[in-house]
């Protein structure tokens, strides 16, 4: 937990605590998922704040685990690239966007159901029908961080499109951009081919759609948010931590006895050479992207980041 950036860490903690509170209060007859989950906007129990609170509620341990595992895996990298404020803004905004997509899906479903029973009922009359069916519509509740998490997955794929990662059950690594396409395809297939599985597939896709257009906007207006592309800011932070560590070590060793001066020179010369090598690798990333590195260069960068 010490190495997880602040917003990702706080989101993980809040989600876990919210789930524990939900379990504890259920024994007292209080259903937090019903209070803070996202209700259909024509239902009596709908509240605007639920567009935010629903993403901190979960339906079970497995639901919570997979969302938090994906948030940890990809959120750490994305937050290191963007910084905490932009990361949190993106996460919450895409979660709200996912909720709006889910509301639209429920509206279409409600209209088709009502119109199928009585074709004379139009859009303008749905409010009156919803009032009569309020108790049933209150059961249409959405919970979970999946929409926001899918947006984080998309962000990783757009920032590091050529980076190779493993996904189960494929035995070979694939590029991150195809990883995103793979999961988006699963959601589209599930949305079209699976009915009544209690999974908000359109909300997942909605989070990705909101994230896609947000990142495209930031790239077209770099002074308003997105900043430098391909994660250069993230790798610059590695360089800064390396330089700070080298300075601290040099200052500390400068206080040693005169007989150790020659070893100090050797040590500093070696550190200077290592620093030049890291600088060269980072410059290569800026020019040609991370995927252009050789296996040895990737190993050196990885070892350096672990030491820092």
UniProtKB/TrEMBL annotation:
InterPro entries: DUF6576, Peptidase_S54_rhomboid_dom, Rhomboid-like_sf. Keywords: Membrane, Transmembrane, Transmembrane helix. It comes from the Bacteria. Residues 46-216 form the Peptidase S54 rhomboid domain. GO terms for cellular component: membrane. GO terms for molecular function: serine-type endopeptidase activity. Residues 245-269 are annotated as: Disordered. It is found in: Membrane. It is a multi-pass membrane protein. SUPFAM superfamilies: Rhomboid-like. Coiled coil: none annotated. The chain crosses the membrane at residues 12-32, 52-76, 88-113, 133-156, 176-193, 199-218. Residues 264-306 form the DUF6576 domain. It holds the Pfam family DUF6576. PANTHER family: PEPTIDASE S54 RHOMBOID DOMAIN-CONTAINING PROTEIN (PTHR43066:SF11), RHOMBOID-RELATED PROTEIN (PTHR43066). This is Rhomboid family intramembrane serine protease. It comes from Prevotella sp. GTC17254.
